[in-house]
Structures are given as C-alpha cells and as structure tokens.
Amino acid sequence: MTQNNKVLVVYFSRTGEQYSVGNIKEGNTAIVAKMIADKTGADLFEIKLANDTYPASYTALTKVAQQEKRANARPEVADKVSNFDDYGTVFIGCPNWWGDLPMAVYTFMEQYDWSGKKVAPFVTHEGSGLSSIPSSIKKTTKADVLNGFSLYGHEAQNERESAKLKVDAWLKKLGF
Ligand SMILES: Cc1cc2nc3c(=O)[nH]c(=O)nc-3n(C[C@H](O)[C@H](O)[C@H](O)COP(=O)(O)O)c2cc1C
C-alpha cells in the first residue's frame, strides 16, 4: 500500500512587473505558497513553463494571457511531480488571471489522476478574489475541493505579517 497522507503545495506565480506592486523578485502567489508549506510541512512544487516567453511587462502579459484564455491554450509545463500518488492533499495556488486560472495550471492539472485527493485552492488577485477558480479546479480534477482562500497580491507582497495571519486562519479552518 502506498502512503497518501503527504501534503503538496503546487503553485504558479510570476516575477517581473505586477499590478500595484511594481517590479517584484518573488511572485505574490509564491509568497503565500511558501507560507502554507512552512506551516503544514508540505512539499513545494512550482509550475514552470517549458518555454517561458511571457513578457515581464504587466500590460503585455495581460494581453498574452487573454489570448491564451480565448484560445483555451495548454502551454507546455516544464516538470512533473514524480511521486504524485503519495499526496492526499494538494494545495493549488495561482494568480487570478482574467477571472480564471493561468492556462498552464490547466496543463498541470490534466496530467494527473486526482481521484481520492483533497484539493485546497488559493489565489492572489487585485480585486476579483477567487472568481470561479475553485469550480474550474473541481471541473478539471473531479477531486474533493475544499474551501478556497484569496488574498490581495499587494498584501502578500508588502504586508507579510497580516498576510500570514490570514493564511494561518484559513489553514486552521481546514484542520492544519
Ligand atoms: C495576465 C494577468 C491578468 C490578471 N487578471 C486579473 C483579474 O482578472 N482580476 C484580478 O483581481 N487581478 C488580476 N490580475 C492581477 C493578479 O491576479 C495579481 O497581481 C496577482 O497577485 C499576481 O500574482 P503573482 O505575482 O503570483 O503572479 C491579473 C494579472 C495578470 C498578470
């Protein structure tokens, strides 16, 4: 029997120019992902593009992302989680892009069998909150999707203490 009680935090996040925070060295969602992994003792996995040609400028990136969403694109991702079956709970984190997940997160989700897993969605945004991201995750993975968490990207970036308190409160509700 394989153990499947391990916890994994998967996230997609961008550096470069982001809305309301200027040029950042660590992505907003990455900051939250690391807080979750620290608190829960989870493994951390970053979804990276196989061929990352996304522009560093915010406005240019919004245009590329909009085109990808319209085309329902599946940008190729770089790596796979080798021991995916070991995980019972998977946190999936991403920025809210046009009310949706970045398309690369769909590419990621479609590569795995999620049956029997619990999925906890978390999102950073600049006003839209979770949008329909949890229901899109449910539709794609068919997993047991837990209550999601959203946080302003600029709060994750610039107000770490209050961000951490909110992250911890959410984790506590989930039983961590
Ligand atoms: C392509 C793109 C589209 C975005 N669309 C939205 C949106 O629809 N609603 C919203 O609240 N924020 C939107 N944002 C802002 C991001 O969700 C926010 O800045 C987020 O914290 C970025 O996280 P990251 O640094 O982890 O990539 C968008 C940002 C980008 C780059």
Question: What does the model show?
Answer:
There is one protein chain. The chain is built from 6 helices and 8 strands. With about 180 residues, it is an alpha/beta fold. The chain has one domain (about 5-175): Flavodoxin domain (Rossmann fold), CATH 3.40.50.360. Strand 5 (about 85-95), helix 3 and strand 6 form a beta-alpha-beta unit. Helix 1 (about 30-40) packs across helix 6 (about 160-175). The longest helix has 15 residues, at about 160-175. The mean pLDDT is about 95. It binds flavin mononucleotide. Flavin mononucleotide (FMN) binds near residues 27, 29, 98, 99 and 128.
Class in CATH? Alpha Beta
Class from secondary-structure proportions:
alpha/beta
Task: Give unreliable regions as ranges.
Answer: none
Fraction of residues in β-strands: 15-25%
**CATH topology value:** Rossmann fold
Mean pLDDT: 97
CATH architecture descriptor: 3-Layer(aba) Sandwich
What does the largest sheet look like?
6 strands, parallel
* Ligand inventory: flavin mononucleotide
From the N-terminal CA to the C-terminal CA, the straight-line distance is 25 Å
For the secondary structure, the number of strands is 8
What is the helix/strand order?
A: EEEHEHEHEHEEHH
